[in-house]
Amino acid sequence: MPEVRLAQEEIRRHNAGTLLRHVHLGGAVSRTALAERMRLNRSTIMALTTELATAGLVREELPADTGRAGRPSLVVRPDSGQVYVLAFDVAVDRLVAARVALGGIMLDRREAVRPRAGADLDRVVEVLARFGRQLHRTAPPDSVCVGVGASYCGMIRPGDGMVRFGPDMGWVDQAFGTELGRRLGLGLPVSVGNEAHLGALAEQQRGAGSGFQNLIYLHGDVGVGGGIIVGGKLLDGDGGYGCELGHMVVNPYNGRPCGCGSHGCLEAEVGERALLDAAGRPADLFGRDAVRAVVDDADRGDSAAQEALHQVGDWLGIGVANLINLFNPGMVVFGGMLRDMYPGAATQVRARIATNVLPVARERVRLRTSALGDDATLVGAAELGFSDLLADPLGVLTRTTR
Amino acid sequence: MPEVRLAQEEIRRHNAGTLLRHVHLGGAVSRTALAERMRLNRSTIMALTTELATAGLVREELPADTGRAGRPSLVVRPDSGQVYVLAFDVAVDRLVAARVALGGIMLDRREAVRPRAGADLDRVVEVLARFGRQLHRTAPPDSVCVGVGASYCGMIRPGDGMVRFGPDMGWVDQAFGTELGRRLGLGLPVSVGNEAHLGALAEQQRGAGSGFQNLIYLHGDVGVGGGIIVGGKLLDGDGGYGCELGHMVVNPYNGRPCGCGSHGCLEAEVGERALLDAAGRPADLFGRDAVRAVVDDADRGDSAAQEALHQVGDWLGIGVANLINLFNPGMVVFGGMLRDMYPGAATQVRARIATNVLPVARERVRLRTSALGDDATLVGAAELGFSDLLADPLGVLTRTTR
């Protein structure tokens, strides 16, 4: 039956990808542990690791002394020298590019300050493509670029990386992914994702939420973005535009105006401007340094700064409580600017959760700040770049040449 | 390799289940269409249908005159005479039991009014088990009960059908699923689900949202429950307690008190009591007839009733707009009491969506009332009862005997 032959090939591909994903995300792991986790026998694991090692994707070595008698199981680790991805991050205040190896190791990076206003597609792509070509050129001659991922602070059409709406830069329907791919000239497509979506995936795969199947990531900068993992997968919705938790209305009748045209959205009540206004800072001040100054002042006992964090924290708590009722998550992660703000607002957030969330829905939830910090979105972009390789390691290597 | 033999067996089981699901949900379908939809060749489809027909689960027959020349493809339909499930619905105002055949055909049913207050586990289970045994006893002697599903108006622990919280009946940690299974005495476990979760699945499988992979179902009765389909699957969250959209706070500072202890929850602002109060109805009036009377009065031009629907509709709109921003769904379905209320509140709901939802996230969403009406939850319970059979049709038949 042809179906069965096809299925066997699919199973082998799936197994090779799963094994590579285990060592890519988990680091060195013994063959025995791989066999247990993948529910395969040891001879199948051996065949798969041999194939991946021959392709230069993993290395096998004897473990350090295990202290046990008997022949130790070989340890499999990602080979960080053979393949890499390029990862890009277009954030509200910076443009970043990095070369990232299997195992998630940042090998090299370039970064530029981005002015808050006046960044058109051409200029942004030009800077990123120049960084990318530099990173590619300076890579070891025998290494291969297997994918390109990019994070963007806006709403992205999944198929082609079109920016449907980039509120911060005033972009509407800009062909960001296609243009970046063309200007890089590597013959590789660029996978683009929303920054908070990618931050959520990064925190779930390599950060605070490792192992959590249901996780909410809130990313604060000028506004508030969200990435929501449901059953181990990013919630994308019908067009890929889900997770817009920043535009959940929490204050419908006295709400601050929001950049989206509405009032009382979560991001209008807890975003950068809301905090700076509440703390009585001048209207022309902005950016993460200004936010951190409020947090630092609160830490030093400034009551106006403390009160500003409490006020914003109450709105944040209403939003987070709503999300816990809806998603019954195992973890909520505060990232971006919210990582700095959360500790000073945690009492208010916890109080709202205690009041507003049904006890059964909150009995196991944990609240954490981002473990990857400002790099969460870049790490997520790198993982997006690796996704083809992890789906079909040997197929991608065959198709990709430097 | 033993993995491959296992995989072949798994593939066959998966294919048999998928084929049966196609005819169970879609009705009569030609072998040719099945081959196309399942991406299998015709000989594999023939082998699968022969197996399922021998087991009495499907019938094959010549289609009505197709008007085309050549040999017509045989049509496969569910055989509604051989197997059935028992489905139960514990709603705020009634207890229902039904015997449901493959293809979703309601063969027989029993129903009792449930008083609003004072229903303990023992009494509810006694009524349902009596109905269930009657339905089982009067089934044709050669038919087999292959599953039992139940819908309950509260928060359910997925594994064993424990009611963690049943606000309407005051239940906390009541072993509903286990007790109903024991009292039925059929030797079958009872799968229990939250009523709005099951309503969502029913509308997606057999109702207004057929074919939609991202769908939000709002179920109104005393409160407002939700079932949310994300990527074709019910959002359950870490413990199975997700989708509690009725406790999303929409009116944090002037909100009506909610049964959960908080204020301004969606269900406090749009539930039965909110509508009846807004319409100036007496405080001792309740139930779906009272709600329908407000809707009827509004339809007849009563301005107080119209104004009440508009007021409730504005809050409903805020809640629905938040949900669309979060989930980017293809469809929102209004069920239960909201099915009656929605038409008189649609203008307010649509206005809130236009104001509060990002254009990209709402460009494809459709708003509909429930197609299954008051039976949505019961239909969902029946589908829950069928899930084991559809996962492994021949395995379940082998294990189940009347």
TrEMBL record, chains A, B:
SUPFAM superfamilies linked to this entry: Actin-like ATPase domain, Winged helix' DNA-binding domain
InterPro entries in UniProt: ATPase_NBD, ROK, WH-like_DNA-bd_sf, WH_DNA-bd_sf
One Pfam family per UniProt: ROK
Top-rank taxon: Bacteria
PANTHER family documented for this protein: BIFUNCTIONAL UDP-N-ACETYLGLUCOSAMINE 2-EPIMERASE_N-ACETYLMANNOSAMINE KINASE, ROK (REPRESSOR, ORF, KINASE) FAMILY
Family indicated by similarity: Belongs to the ROK (NagC/XylR) family.
Record protein name field: ROK family transcriptional regulator
